[in-house]
Amino acid sequence: MRKRVITLASALLVGLSANAQKVEFEEYNLNNGMHVILHQDNSAPVVTTSVMYHVGAKDEQPNRTGMAHFFEHLLFEGTKNIKKGEWFKIVSSNGGTNNANTTDDRTYYYEVFPSNNLELGLWMESERLLHPIIGQEGVDTQNEVVKEEKRLRVDNQPYSRFLENVKKNMFKKHPYKGTTIGKMEHLDAATLEEFLAFNKKYYVPNNATLVVAGDFEVKEAKRLIKSYFEPIPRGKDIVRSFPKEDPITKEFFAKAYDPNIQIPAIMAAYRTPSMKTRDARVLDMISTYLSGGKSSVLYKKLVDTKKMALQAGAINLSQEDYGTYILFALPLGDNSLQSLVKEIDEEVVKLQTNLISEKNYQKLQNKFENNFVNANSSVEGIANSLARYNVLYGDTNLINTEIDIYRSITREEIREVAKKYLNTNQRLVMEYLPESKK
Length: 438
Known about the structure:
Blueprint: H1 2-20, E1 26-29, E2 35-40, E3 46-53, H2 67-74, H3 87-93, E4 97-102, E5 107-114, H4 118-130, H5 136-155, H6 162-170, H7 184-189, H8 192-202, E6 208-214, H9 218-229, E7 252-258, E8 265-273, H10 278-291, H11 297-305, E9 309-318, E10 322-331, H12 337-353, H13 358-375, H14 379-393, H15 398-408, H16 411-421, E11 427-434
Helix pairs in contact: 4-9, 10-16, 12-16
């Protein structure tokens, strides 16, 4: 009886949290094609202004990789009305913070200000779009910044190249085979005219979503947005036509080397569908089941119980066009990489054969409920989610409804999706080795 009461109480709390977490928003288009999303929350005197551009590493030319990430840096250089080196000073002196980030699929810029600086945030983002200064001096400066970032985050970090090596083996045609940071020789070879052309093509209002979230008055925000953004000319429509990958029908093998590691690793990677699909969400649940914390299947088996691995887990890298599902482990002691693959495969076969327990299923549901609540717990997080769901999924209201997709996933679906995608004849097995063993 006690268990039944607890279950009902939990269900009630879930229902209340879902209602409390509903994100209200308004969205519309400007005449130049810019999409605008407004989320008013007057509970704290802060406001986020952000713009997500639908441009990422996959939009680059094969011999000019790194352009999208480079622009993430370059567009802080200054504008017609913001002098070189002044961007961050303006933000900080007005009590704000700001940042930007780039993926294979999009680039995102944002500021968080005290709410009385809404106009400042909108003006700065309109300046970035309308009046950027893209000159050789700025290009040269940011080239050195990007190179230093690559040295710190990639060249000198252990295991930092594993994803790069997985992707270049998994994708032979689609531009996901590259890296977001790109190749430095490509950036060195790029001309100023090429940087200007990239900006002209992708940094246009009809390729952008503006989000204002936080403490503001809607009528005033609309007036300011119209004033600052609507005069910006529409760009040419962007047509994307990326090559399709051939299905993987036979297990294949590769080796990669890293001078910064002493312990090797093994990866089994599978190509999976777009993050917009239901199957991608099921794979999210599978990866959490296999490696979501110390009580997860792979950690308990390989690290805790058998003490065969230092680490073991699963990564569901979902992207706009494809996904990459990666199972990995680092051996402990004399355990071989092949023995780790064997142990991991046993757990995958169990998933493909049997239903996970009702207890584990409820545990998964609780974790995803918690993730949903946390993602929408701050105005800054809500702004990011609103932009992402609009730009990459084409459905802004997924900020409220995606959790319903996860709630509706059944144990039977988990089994069937594992059977559909996680088969040995559909994968890459890659040994990631210390350079000295080459």
